[in-house]
Amino acid sequence: MRNLQLIIKREYLSRIRNKTFVVMTFLSPVIMVAMVMLIAYLTSLNNDEEKIVGVHDVSNIVYDQLQEQENTVYLNLSYLDLRTAIDSVDKKEYYGLLYIPSGETDAELSSHVEFFAKEAPSNFFLSDLEQKISGVLSNRKLENTGVNLATIENSKAQVNIKIENFSGQTTSKMASYVKMFFGGAAGYLLMMFIIIYGNMVMRSVIEEKTNRIVEIIISSVKPIQLMLGKIVGTSLAGITQFFIWIIFGSILLFSVTAIFGIESTSIQGQAAATAINQDEMQLFINDVLQLPLGTITVAFLIYFIGGYFLYSSIYAAIGAAVDSETDTQQFMFPVILPLMLGIYVGFFSVIENPHGIVATIFSYIPLTSPIVMLMRIPFGVAWWEVLISLSILFATVFLVIWMAAKIYRVGILMYGKKASYKELFKWLKY
Amino acid sequence: MKNLLVAQNVSKSYGDYKAINDLSIEVPAQSIFGLLGPNGAGKTTFIRIINQITMPDTGKILLDGEPLQPSDVQHIGYLPEERGLYKSMKVGEQVLYLAQLKGLSKKEATKRLNYWFERLEIGDWWNKKIQELSKGMAQKIQFIVTVIHQPKLLIFDEPFSGFDPVNANLIKDQILQLKEDGATILFSTHRMESVEELCDYMALIHKSNKILDGKVSDIKKDFRSNTYEVGISPRKQQEFIGDLKQHFEVTPAHYHSIHDDTKLHIKIPDHSNANDLLHHLISLGEVNHFVEVIPSVNDIFIKTVGQHA
């Protein structure tokens, strides 16, 4: 045990003292925040562009009702004939020309509205315009049939179906997306973590092998101790990095928003504009709070431990089997494959039906279960399902560690021999 | 004399390949024991078994009369043939880490490292990284790592390969000093001269089998061929060779000499001795050179391996 501690300590220290590690740990949040800022800035830049739209509306049905908006200016060109109007819009490089025909019937009117533009306008812009025009025309129709608009305005009812489960928790239709987001983020994070730190374990094994120090160490400790110490030490370094990211990243984000005055209300305002009213915003926050956040966190940790040990012991065995990093290619694909499969199955079949047969099976298969089960958990999974999945996972973890230790034990003392799968299989029996 | 290390009928196979076959040796305490054999004979496998890196299929290893246990690693110091250190780790930290793995406390390890820095007359390398050291300097650190926990049994696998002559000499002196201090040393090498110089005992391993072992001086006695190297100025040049050939086996010899002698290898029959030959030679002329031909370990090695090939 004392030796295991010593190895873990050395591995941990050598990881976190590594220059690349230090740079990545402190630079990544900066890069992330900078990216977010850049994207936000570029998007706002795009929206800030002023659009001038000519309107040719001879009977003046719509033009009066079009209100000036922040970035869009409507110019009445009805005094020109259509051809000239189009030419002048083209010449002056306006955004486009909206043409409302002077139809006799409303039906004729609504199907003959046209928009002339040099380049196809954005879908957002068009649907916004369509909504406005159809609103104007609908109101016109209603007035024509003698209905008082004020009465209608007063009689409008906002319907929002609230979903309530049998234990009395209310959620909104947003909840599914929230759950998917949290599940997906957890699964994706787990995969990234496994790949990054699994690779670190592998590189460290290769380093000891090429340094030729490994024989000196295993004359003092058992190879499995060295392997486990390496895996645990590296995972601790990973967890350290993860926590630094979270702390550093949130400090950075807060200070940046404070300095540049980007208010979170503007995001809320946009959300409101896309037809989410205040009630729904409230429900959204409720959704997040009502997620089994505690369960998700605990599940993340347990599945992380299982998944990480499973994959990093495979990585360690690969590291032991090769002489240099360039030889690892042939073994890498079978390792990455189940991880990618887990992610895709998660994103496609869990969204579709979190309790469907495909999602369920993949949340039992140990190579994919850490990712898929994590994605399913926000939707509520029976405890016994989690128990089965975890039992299979940890039974496999012990089996794989045992096998990896055998390959590792033989592999670290093999030089210059290119290991094939057949060879690895033979090592299991030594 | 007490044996520190005893191997009893040790065998080890890798698949169909038999790396060691029924090997038994006894290494007396406070001696230097040479394990000799061509490359691929099974020396490294055997050493790894002693270090408990590999488990034998059959057979037993006794250290100080007791079967080998996992805790015995602290009594063994091992310098493998394939050796190295963490390149980006500092010397002090690295040696302390490896010494702690051998069971030393950090405090004790620090004290001993400073002692060895002095003993090998190297400066304060505590905070230097291995990659900043020259190869010779790194080899000294490697040696310290092997001996710092004061093991009863020291195992050197091809210790002089990769050491430059100056460092090789330094290490040789240190090994002899360690023996004086009470350590038992097991050597594995295919370089015969080092056995001549250092070893008290030896075992020859060839194709997984032990083909010879014992005290080096005894083995040499066994391999003596009763042959003497002689330089003589005969009085009667013509009859002299013929006369000799009647009594002995005579072949020409080659060695450097300041005399213009006839140089011969003369083998005497089992029933006579050196004095008989000398008397005979004196009667024939003036003897300037008379020495017994002692087989070198190299000769013994080649001869024995040839017999078993």
From TrEMBL, chain A:
Membrane protein topology class: Multi-pass membrane protein
Pfam families documented for this protein: ABC2_membrane_3 (PF12698)
Keywords associated with the record: Cell membrane, Membrane, Transmembrane, Transmembrane helix
SUPFAM superfamilies documented for this protein: Periplasmic binding protein-like II
Source organism, top-level taxon: Bacteria
Main location as per UniProt: membrane
Transmembrane segments: 21-42, 180-201, 242-262, 291-311, 331-350, 357-375, 381-405
ABC-2 type transporter transmembrane domain mapped to chain residues: 19-405
PANTHER family assigned: MEMBRANE COMPONENT OF ABC TRANSPORTER YHHJ-RELATED (PTHR30294), MULTIDRUG ABC TRANSPORTER PERMEASE YBHS-RELATED (PTHR30294:SF29)
Protein name according to UniProt: ABC transporter permease
Organism: Mesonia profundi
Upper classification of the organism: Bacteria, Pseudomonadati, Bacteroidota, Flavobacteriia, Flavobacteriales
TrEMBL record, chain B:
Sequence ranges assigned to domain ABC transporter in this UniProt record: 5-232
CDD domains in the cross-refs: ABC_putative_ATPase
SMART domains: AAA
Keywords for the protein's UniProt record, in alphabetical order: ATP-binding, Nucleotide-binding, Transport
Family annotation (InterPro entries): AAA+_ATPase, ABC_transporter-like_ATP-bd, ABC_transporter-like_CS, ABC_Transporter_VariousFunc, DrrA1/2-like_C, P-loop_NTPase
GO molecular function, one term: ATP binding
Name of this chain's protein: ABC transporter ATP-binding protein
Biological source species: Mesonia profundi
